[in-house]
Amino acid sequence: MTNRIAYKTPTESFNARTVRQGECLLWAGAVKETGYGAMWDGERVVRPHRWIYEQANGPIPEGADIDHVCGNRVCCEISHLRVTTRKQNMENLTHVNANSSTGVRGVHKNTKGGKPWRVRVKHNYVEYNGGYYDSLEEAETAAIELRNKLFTHNDADRKAA
What we know:
Elements: H1 10-16, E1 18-21, E2 24-27, E3 39-40, E4 45-46, H2 48-57, E5 65-68, E6 81-84, H3 86-91, E7 107-109, E8 117-123, E9 126-133, H4 136-150, H5 155-160
Antiparallel strand pairs: 1-2, 3-4, 5-6, 7-8, 8-9
């Protein structure tokens, strides 16, 4: 039989399951397959970053996302969380698309001949061609420039530019 600690309040539970790591406050409790934390708020299972945001700022508008400015899905640091639309949240993704074999977001191998690297960026369900490049580094720079032109909430790209 496993010993379970029963916390009296969601705040007590939250505080016991977060750890400071650099500038982030990381959720160290249960994490779902999506990469987001999960906690009981006394009524239902919720995402800890959304729960703490509401504790500090009040209700999240209907349909709004909470974006992790730092890019870490288990971060619960209030200063790293902001209300965004789904579009804005998707713009700030810092991870590489799971379908990318290059390891660089927006850069794909060109299989049709010519220059070996192709830049493609999706924005509002439209795919934009960013050109073809001789080196992966050139293609990465072009992908960042294209995202900076199209996106408003791509913080990691803006720091890299």
